[in-house]
């Protein structure tokens, strides 16, 4: 290689590097001009853009919430019909009720997907401002106690109770295997969603089976209810237990009503669903409670429940920490 060739190559590389640097600089300038284009940044800008300071309950919110115009909501968005995705959008009972609350508050309630058993931890770490996810109001959750170990795991939450539901059982259609209630589950395989009231109830019933000299319930716990349904659909388990609205919806729509059937009669252990707010956030809690009360008063609450066929779960009074 001649000296001239070497020099020409070096010059070419220098020009190429300079061009690349210029392109990077131009890109950075463009990004700077356009602002942060991440989903989170876009959501924040849209929230502030749509903030309604004249909404009836806006001034009840804490100042920092008024400023950011958004609450991050932790939710397991796989729990039809309470919350799920349809064509990319988050829909269901909770999102519809949250939309009615948003109008009253003048801010956005932004749903974030997570597995159900991580929601309390997400509140503790401040990843979410609140949790709204078919979460049953219990004393353990109020006090921040792990229902499995009995140990304190956090400061606990306050619940704004907005629905009253129980848990139900369903099996493959025409293949109940003799299951007609919880007392006939001994020795059977049951799928549940991990960390739910159904999971706790199944463990209690299994202990009762053993105490009576029968085989325990073989419990399979999944991250979400869709996985439990798939397990039943493929005959991997004998039954599924979930909250009544979820069970009824699965029976109605799965296989156009041909996959599953309800068993066991009326739902057990009726208890309230609550919006979970970390302890110490009384102003936020009270503003959210007022938003649910206003939704009941103006009829938007009844419209949501009627749309999703859960009218029987309606509450007449919005209690705080009404669970046991």
UniProtKB/TrEMBL annotation:
Cleavable signal peptide: 1-35
Task: Extract the InterPro entries matched here.
Answer: Solute-binding_3/MltF_N (IPR001638), TAT_signal (IPR006311)
List each copy of the Solute-binding protein family 3/N-terminal domain by range.
70-312
Q: Which Gene3D superfamilies match?
A: Periplasmic binding protein-like II
| SMART domains with a match to the protein in the record | PBPb
Know the name of this protein? Solute-binding protein family 3/N-terminal domain-containing protein
Q: Does the keyword Signal apply?
A: yes
- Keywords attached to this entry: Signal
């Amino acid at each position: 290689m001649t000296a001239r060739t070497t020099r020409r190559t070096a010059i070419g590389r220098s020009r190429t590097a300079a061009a690349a640097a210029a392109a990077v600089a131009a890109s950075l300038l463009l990004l700077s001009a356009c602002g942060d284009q991440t989903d989170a940044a876009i959501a924040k800008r849209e929230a502030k853009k749509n903030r309604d300071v004249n909404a009836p309950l806006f001034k009840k919110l804490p100042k920092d919430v008024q400023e950011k115009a958004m609450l991050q909501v932790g939710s397991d968005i796989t729990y039809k019909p309470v919350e799920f995705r349809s064509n990319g959008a988050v829909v269901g009972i909770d999102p519809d009720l949250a939309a009615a609350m948003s109008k009253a508050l003048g801010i956005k309630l932004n749903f974030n997907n997570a597995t159900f058993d991580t929601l309390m931890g997400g509140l503790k770490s401040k990843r979410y401002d609140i949790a709204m996810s078919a979460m049953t109001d219990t004393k353990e959750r109020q006090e921040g106690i792990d229902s499995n170990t009995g140990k304190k795991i956090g400061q606990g939450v306050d619940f704004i109770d907005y629905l009253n539901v129980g848990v139900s059982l369903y099996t493959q259609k025409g293949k109940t295997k003799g299951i007609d209630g919880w007392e006939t589950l001994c020795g059977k395989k049951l799928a549940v969603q991990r960390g739910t009231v159904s999971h706790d109830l199944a463990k209690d019933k299994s202990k009762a089976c053993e105490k009576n000299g029968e085989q325990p319930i073989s419990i399979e716990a999944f991250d979400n209810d869709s996985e439990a349904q798939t397990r039943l659909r493929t005959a991997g388990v004998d039954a599924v237990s979930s909250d009544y609205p979820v069970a009824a919806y699965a029976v109605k729509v799965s296989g156009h009503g041909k996959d599953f059937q309800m068993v066991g009669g009326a739902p057990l252990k009726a208890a309230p669903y609550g919006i979970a707010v970390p302890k110490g956030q009384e102003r936020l809690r009270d503003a959210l409670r007022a938003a649910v009360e206003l939704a009941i008063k103006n009829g938007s609450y009844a419209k949501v429940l009627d749309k999703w066929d859960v009218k029987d779960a309606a509450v007449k009074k919005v209690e705080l920490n009404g669970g046991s």
